Amino acid sequence: MAERVEDLNLPNAVVTRIIKECLPDGINVSKEARTAIARATSIYILFITSAANNVATQASRKTISANDVFKALEETEFSSFVKPIQEALEEFKKLQLDKKQKAAGKKGEDIDKSSEDKPNDETMEVEEEEQDDEDEQEQ
């Protein structure tokens, strides 16, 4: 658990970046406003986490799932957030899967390249048989 209330706040740089992405160009936000937004965001996260924990506890689980968060949003009258968050979660999962597949593909290419350089068990057996045949012919 956090020792100080300030430990619960999101990093100012992250909050500032998110605010700038959400507002049109040329709009300035005071330091006090950024601090207020950061605190409100932290409190909101704690509130939804607590509600999601209650949902998980009622289902006799110790792990909070995404579905628990969605149900908590509905129970706390933030149901309008459910659909956009579900869409964002699906997009995130898709991006993660794409990254994983690209990494696996790259590893597969690396393995293919390295297997060309190194003989595998089958080629070693064939080479040994050929060597044995050559040895027999010489005798």
TrEMBL record:
InterPro entries linked: CBFA_NFYB_domain, DNA_Pol-Epsilon_Subunit, Histone-fold
Transcription factor CBF/NF-Y/archaeal histone domain: residues covered: 9-73
Subcellular localization: Nucleus
One GO term describing the cellular component: CHRAC
GO MF annotation, one: chromatin DNA binding
Comp. bias intervals (Basic and acidic residues): 100-121
Disordered as annotated region, ranges: 100-139
Keywords tagged on the record: Nucleus
Superkingdom of source: Eukaryota
Nucleus recorded as keyword: yes
One GO BP: DNA damage response
Main location: nucleus
UniProt cross-references to Gene3D superfamilies, sorted A to Z: Histone, subunit A (1.10.20.10)
Biased composition (Acidic residues): 122-139
PANTHER family cross-referenced by the UniProt entry: DNA POLYMERASE EPSILON SUBUNIT 3
Protein name: DNA polymerase epsilon subunit 3
Source species taxonomy: Eukaryota, Metazoa, Ecdysozoa, Arthropoda, Hexapoda
